[in-house]
């Protein structure tokens, strides 16, 4: 009974999330609650299960709130804009430098964990240069997709927080396991940019004259206007401009504290609390300005935090009622012993295509919980299952039609690139990075087999 109800519940959650009939919060609160009552859970027991589930995720929710506040403030005070401008000037008129700059800008811009912000920073800054040089816009989008895919492993990135929530682990602890793989991923993204830059140089030489056509010039001017508009929106006061070195050092210090947290042993959310408070005091000494910053940046964290809390309810009910254990036992009886110990590797390999069609919430909250339990039964820690599935999903993030940022990225090119063309051009590259990172994790023991 518990196993059947558990599978029905997971199926309903995935279907409703895919069809977008209900918000993730509503799905992950209502469906498990109804399922709990169907299997005979009392009000008192349900209260205990929900409380336990919420206790397991509260640190993650706090961390996400303050990480969004911190990086939002750093973005507002021009930390990322300054770096982007320097890289764009360095690129000049060399196609390889241009593609490498694109990757570096996307990597730096994605320090805040927001794919939408990364696109809005990188595309307006680089698209005019691509147009002027006769380089293909699709190459720009492919490089951004590859860069976002490897940078989204950060502990305040949505997928990592979701995976950590499911396995009841601090996202920063999970990230520390991922750091060597992420470093490799950054080099792979830069290598991809170099290869595509060489291809674009040959393409431009074969298909473009030195003088641009009127059409290219027109497109370039329009893109430059977009970039100018964005810069005007974020005009900084002279005082904040003078504080740029301080803000850059503060950003580096906060990231360094997170990386050294196993030694210092401070909660991740507290590190971001300190960073947020210092950022506000240094840049906005006026109380009204500080409140405005909180109001401006906290809203973007609300939907994810609400989803994390709803996931805590779902996981608490699944574990408390015994549904998760019953589902795992059913799968264990079906999966051959010889195959079971590789279940995390199998789904790590399938993570790319599977993540494209399920969406982030359905992938982590619908598929990961029972798989993690099955892996545990075969002697595979849930940590290894989470790492494998995060690697599979992250690298194809901006190729999935289930991810809103994918459509934002396509929209920034004004229908010049279709989703089909984007997937066709970028899938092998992004999925290949995912598989190389997974293999690296296995070979160096980060993912046990």
TrEMBL record:
Transmembrane segments: 29-50, 62-83, 103-127, 139-158, 178-198, 243-263, 269-287, 299-318, 386-413, 425-448
Location within or outside the cell: Membrane
Keyword Transmembrane helix: yes
Alphabetized UniProt keyword annotations: Membrane, Transmembrane, Transmembrane helix, Transport
GO molecular function, one term: gluconate transmembrane transporter activity
Keyword Membrane: yes
InterPro entries: Cit_transptr-like_dom, Citrate_transporter, Glcn_transporter
Residues of the Citrate transporter-like domain: 14-391
Any one GO cellular component localisation term in the record: plasma membrane
Name of the featured protein: TRAP transporter large permease subunit
């Amino acid at each position: 009974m518990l196993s059947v109800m558990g599978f029905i519940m997971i199926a309903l959650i995935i279907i409703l999330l895919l069809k977008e009939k209900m918000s993730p919060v509503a799905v992950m609160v209502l469906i498990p609650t109804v399922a709990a009552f169907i299997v005979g859970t009392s009000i008192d027991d349900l209260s205990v299960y929900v409380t336990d589930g919420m206790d397991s995720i509260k640190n993650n929710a706090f961390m996400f709130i303050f990480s969004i506040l911190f990086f939002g403030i750093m973005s507002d005070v021009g930390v990322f804009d300054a770096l982007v401008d320097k890289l764009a000037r360095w690129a000049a008129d060399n196609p390889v430098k241009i593609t490498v700059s694109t990757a570096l800008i996307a990597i730096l811009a994605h320090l805040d964990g927001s794919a939408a912000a990364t696109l809005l920073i990188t595309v307006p800054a680089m698209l005019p240069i691509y147009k002027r040089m006769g380089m293909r816009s699709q190459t720009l989008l492919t490089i951004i997709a590859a860069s976002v895919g490897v940078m989204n492993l950060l502990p305040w990135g949505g997928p990592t927080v979701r995976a950590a929530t499911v396995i009841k682990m601090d996202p920063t602890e999970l990230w520390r396991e991922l750091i060597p793989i992420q470093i490799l991923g950054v080099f792979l993204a830069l290598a991809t940019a170099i290869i595509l830059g060489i291809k674009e140089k040959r393409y431009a030489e074969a298909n473009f004259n030195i003088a641009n056509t009127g059409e290219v010039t027109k497109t370039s001017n329009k893109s430059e206007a977009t970039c100018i508009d964005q810069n005007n929106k974020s005009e900084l006061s002279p005082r904040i401009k003078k504080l740029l070195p301080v803000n850059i050092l503060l950003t580096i210090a906060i990231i360094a504290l997170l990386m050294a947290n196993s030694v210092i042993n401070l909660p991740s959310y507290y590190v971001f609390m300190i960073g947020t408070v210092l950022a506000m005091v240094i840049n906005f000494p006026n109380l009204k300005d500080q409140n405005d910053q909180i109001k401006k940046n906290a809203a973007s964290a609300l939907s994810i935090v609400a989803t994390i809390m709803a996931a805590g309810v779902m996981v608490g009910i699944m574990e408390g009622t015994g549904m998760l254990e019953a589902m795992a036992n059913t799968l264990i009886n079906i999966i051959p012993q010889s195959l079971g110990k590789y279940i995390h590797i199998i789904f790590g390999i399938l993570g790319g295509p599977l993540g494209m069609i399920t969406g982030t919430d359905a992938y982590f909250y619908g598929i990961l919980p029972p798989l993690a339990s099955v892996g545990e039964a075969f002697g595979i820690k849930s940590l290894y299952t989470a790492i494998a599935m995060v690697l599979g999903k992250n690298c194809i993030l901006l190729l999935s039609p289930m991810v809103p940022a994918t459509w934002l990225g396509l929209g920034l090119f004004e229908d010049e690139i279709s989703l089909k063309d984007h997937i066709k051009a970028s899938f092998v590259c992004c999925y290949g990075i995912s598989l190389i990172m997974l293999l690296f994790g296995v070979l160096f023991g980060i993912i046990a087999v």
